[in-house]
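Memo to structure team: turn this sequence into structure tokens by end of day. - J.P.
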Amino acid sequence: MRFRPYDQATVPNIVVDGSPRDNTVLTLSHWPKSGTPFELKADTSAEIALKYLESPRFHVESEIVTNNHFDQDGLVGVFALTDPTTATRHRNLLIDIASAGDFGVFKSREAARINFAVSAFSDSKTSPLPKEVFSQSYPNMAAELYIRMLAVFPEIIADPNNFKSLWEAEDEKLSESEALVKERIVTIEENFDLDLAVVRIPDRIASFRVHRFTSPQESACHPMAIYNATPCTRILMVQGQDVEFQYRYESWVQLVSRTPLPRVDLSSVAEQLNASETNRGAWKFDGVDEITPRLWLDGKGETSIPADLVRHKIEEYLRTAPSAWDPYDIPA
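Reply from structure team:
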């Protein structure tokens, strides 16, 4: 099969890790309500694509595979269909790379490092690719990243050490964060009844540049060090009076290995907090349909409300509010 940009896929096509478009004959995606055949479903779209290769009865008449965004899971899934021989040979590693990219969870350090290398390639500040790649509209940039990365990806998975300059800085930050968690300098308190982990980070630890999916962000503890340490999909981050809640990506997609507690709408909690907030800024909830929505104080890092009171209000709502998000297809 051949990759074709999403807006140019005007012939029968397979969409990996996304939503179908006109002329899509099969969707291989863990996205909400994707319509992927139940027999092929898996936690990552990459594993769904690999299961498709192994299941001839689901094969369709199409020579084109496409995707409308660029990230590790999408790259691995598209790569599987365009180079099935190599993909099958590296099956377990590829699934691990996709999991590291989408969920921040990995089994092998090799997968995490390859994930960082892909992030570095797609980050305009660190990429060895021409700067013109990143001056385009997002759809064109994503398409060009696929074209260029599909060419180099076999070299990355064959010997990640050849790309050490791209992954070593973030890998070092991951090691530092893992040590903080292991030594309980960064603590993780789990409430499995609420699927909630409360992560406390000392004030003295400064933020640094990391990646989630392929996007850069600032964090005082690498997300992979936290996500690899707890299965909870609701995370409350507390660093002094800087308090932020986030739903992990696992609760947005159709997860197969387990079923996270469903998301609830925290807009009412934001309203309650705003009624008490005296610092500048406003509490906002991004919405249950965002991929990793946050409840956060916009415009001011630190809240005037005691962190434990913020926690109490969130826990109370998580315990009593109705489900507001269901990504799962209805079984045929």
